[in-house]
Recover the amino acids of this structure.
């Protein structure tokens, strides 16, 4: 690689990665009353990114794949911040904030093919494992067959497909834990994949992120989603070696609620449930299969500041499910509103792998 191109990459990557980290910070800490404060803390990383963007203009053709990926990541990163700035300046509302934050997974998807570059690979490693030499060596090796990111009928705007990630160091000689992660009501699996990819890549799990068959999950009326999840599960298990004792169904908001709806059914094949920021009606406990509930590992995560589903609901759910015989772990996060807390993923994976005790 030419010295000039290296210099340009060294100049462009830090502000790009910082902008993505700052967008992630806003997404995690978003709470409507505190939006301006969160934006102040996030700073103005997009200004530095905008300043170095012209350095990609005149690269030799043989580096086109790097240039294309960087440009494809920079554009949505800047668009996301532009959307946030518009709301900050009084030109929109909370809906505009959510729309702006949808650019974050698009930027991450565009950037991921450049994990051949150590700083990019490090960005997609969980922070507490970035100094793990063994993990770095596994990720620096040539990817094994049938690994990486896959999309099955899951283009933006489509319904019922799925996206998935298989760690590049996957081998079929052992069974791997499965995480099936369900997006929130206005989301899709292709975007929600990035809420979990860093941890699946770092800690060794196969990740599947389906998209609901309707505009949100089948919380009322005909359940077209459970048969679709089973179809996806069959498709994945036929191709990769999945540990039948470690199959997690998790989800955010409506996705978390649907993990209860389908996961408490006696026919469910998932061994663990981990709803995040979900709601739960007491009738769901009464209607659930009693034998299924007995001893079922359930990990509930909820924010004390949740403005959509008040935390009292999660506390009541913990009591109801524990009384019904489920093995419940409950995590209440003091500074969490109705957003996805990626920091909980490591603990959920440890719990899935039986590496920590459950809470009553």
């Amino acid at each position: 690689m030419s010295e000039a191109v290296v210099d340009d990459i060294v100049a462009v990557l830090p502000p790009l990665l910082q902008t993505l980290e700052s967008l992630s910070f806003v997404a995690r800490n978003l709470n409507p009353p505190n939006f301006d404060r969160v934006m102040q803390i996030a700073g103005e990383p997009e200004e530095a990114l905008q300043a170095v963007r012209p350095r990609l203009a005149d690269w030799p053709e043989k580096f086109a794949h790097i240039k294309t990926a960087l440009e494809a990541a920079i554009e949505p990163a800047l668009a996301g911040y532009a959307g946030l700035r518009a709301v900050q300046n009084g030109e929109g509302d909370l809906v505009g904030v959510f729309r702006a934050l949808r650019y974050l997974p698009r930027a991450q998807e565009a950037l991921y093919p450049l994990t051949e570059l150590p700083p990019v690979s490090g960005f997609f490693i969980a922070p507490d494992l970035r100094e793990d030499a063994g993990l770095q060596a596994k990720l620096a090796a040539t990817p094994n067959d049938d690994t990486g990111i896959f999309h099955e009928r899951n283009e933006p705007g489509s319904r019922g497909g799925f996206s998935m990630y298989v760690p590049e160091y996957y081998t079929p000689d052992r069974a791997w834990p499965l995480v099936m992660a369900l997006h929130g009501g206005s989301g899709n699996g292709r975007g929600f994949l990035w809420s979990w990819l860093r941890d699946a890549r770092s800690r060794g799990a196969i990740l599947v992120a389906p998209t609901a068959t309707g505009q949100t999950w089948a919380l009322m009326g005909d359940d077209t989603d459970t048969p679709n999840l089973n179809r996806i599960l069959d498709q994945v298990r036929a191709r990769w070696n999945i540990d039948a004792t470690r199959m997690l169904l998790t989800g955010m908001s409506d996705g978390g609620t649907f993990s209860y709806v389908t996961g408490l059914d006696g026919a469910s094949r998932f061994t663990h449930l981990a709803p995040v920021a979900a709601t739960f009606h007491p009738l769901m406990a009464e209607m659930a299969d009693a034998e299924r509930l007995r001893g079922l590992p359930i990990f509930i995560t909820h924010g004390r500041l949740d403005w959509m589903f008040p935390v009292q609901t999660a506390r009541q759910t913990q009591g109801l499910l524990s009384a019904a015989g489920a093995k419940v772990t409950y995590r209440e996060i003091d500074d969490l509103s109705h957003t996805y807390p990626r920091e909980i993923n490591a603990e959920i994976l440890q719990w899935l792998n039986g590496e920590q005790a459950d809470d009553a």
Observations:
- The chain has a mean pLDDT of 95.
- The first helix runs from residue 3 to 29.
- The two ends are 56 Å apart (CA to CA).
